[in-house]
């Protein structure tokens, strides 16, 4: 899958398979996206391939106390991915920058606590009032995928 920033200076590519896609409605994501939240795609860091351009970064401490370093295009300001420098093996790609963004379906929805009241969440999605740790979230996702596999047999 290919993606780019708004001005097109930053271009990147990632493999088709990823760990999970999470829709986040926390107030920080709302501010960062100037909207209702973001799509974060969990990926191994080495799966992200920068094709052109350069990224600048800025770090803040998240609501749950973890470090969050965002990487963005210095020309147009578009955010491309976040990572926790204390756990750099996984990046959170801002999936809205992917060409296929509208075709992707989130596996989980987090921070429903601050989501707009009108938002419609599919019944089969994993939902959280706040956010689980990455480990907890992946465990829930694995259980859900197993449940589906049983159901389809
Ligand atoms: Zn740009
Ligand atoms: Zn968020």
From TrEMBL:
It holds the Pfam family GFA. InterPro entries: CENP-V/GFA, Mss4-like_sf. Keywords: Lyase, Metal-binding, Zinc. This is GFA family protein. Belongs to the Gfa family. It comes from the Bacteria. Residues 1-129 form the CENP-V/GFA domain.
């Amino acid at each position: 899958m290919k993606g780019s920033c708004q001005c097109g200076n930053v271009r990147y590519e990632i493999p088709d398979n990823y760990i999970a896609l999470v829709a986040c409605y926390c107030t920080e994501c709302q501010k960062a996206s100037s909207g209702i939240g973001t799509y974060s795609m969990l990926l191994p860091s080495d799966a992200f391939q920068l094709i052109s351009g350069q990224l600048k970064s800025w770090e803040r401490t998240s609501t749950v106390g973890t470090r969050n370093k965002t990487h963005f295009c210095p020309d147009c300001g578009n955010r491309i991915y976040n990572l926790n420098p204390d756990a750099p093996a996984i990046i959170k790609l801002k999936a809205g920058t992917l060409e296929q963004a509208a075709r992707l379906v989130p596996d989980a929805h987090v921070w429903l606590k601050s989501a707009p009241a009108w938002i419609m969440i599919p019944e089969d999605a994993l939902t959280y009032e706040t956010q689980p740790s990455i480990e907890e979230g992946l465990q829930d996702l694995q259980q859900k995928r197993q449940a589906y596999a049983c159901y389809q047999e």
